[in-house]
Design brief:
Helices cover 29% and strands 16% of the residues. The chain has 4 helices and 4 strands, in the order ββαααβαβ. The radius of gyration is 16 Å and the shape is globular. The chain has one domain (2-152).
Length: 156
């Protein structure tokens, strides 16, 4: 889905970059890429330093049927734990492929010059932004998971 939005509805602050530090399974200090991988916080600029906020921004998202994927994994791997069944390593590549296809459509249709694939890394409160367009994100996802990008024009 591609939704044209006014930049003023985008809630962003430095504090949202620290969501990457939220603990999760086997990662008590959050994402191991934080502060190490290129493109990851905390050294990323906020979103208003990337996009021209005088122009519309395009919210690009895709939905992946995680429940169907989990059902398939349960049938294929009877000895797997719940964590293994829902592990991002097994569903995220396919979901990202769908997302990239939607991003390409947006680039062509609106003549965008930049896609931000990690809005959170630039301080965007993605959960709140999705609520603004009537989409509630499930945390942690168990039924439908969504990948979210922003498209627009870079500041010149």
């Amino acid at each position: 889905m591609i939704v044209e939005i006014n930049p003023e509805i985008i809630s962003f602050e430095k504090k949202f970059q620290f969501l990457c530090r939220h603990p999760y399974h086997n990662h008590s200090r959050g994402c191991p890429n934080y502060g190490k991988k290129v493109g990851c916080p905390p050294d990323q600029p906020l979103i208003d330093k990337i996009f021209d906020f005088q122009r519309k921004i395009h919210l690009i998202y895709t939905e992946f049927d995680l429940a169907a994927h989990a059902k398939k994994m349960r049938a294929l791997h009877l000895d797997w734990s719940e964590h293994q069944i829902y592990c991002v390593l097994y569903w995220q590549p396919k979901a990202r492929q769908f997302q990239r296809q939607e991003e390409e459509k947006a680039m062509l249709k609106f003549n965008l010059d930049y896609i931000c694939r990690s809005p959170e890394a630039h301080g965007v409160n993605v959960t709140e932004l999705m609520e603004q367009i009537g989409v509630i994100l499930e945390w942690p996802p168990r039924n439908i998971t969504r990948l979210v990008s922003l498209g627009g024009w870079k500041i010149k």
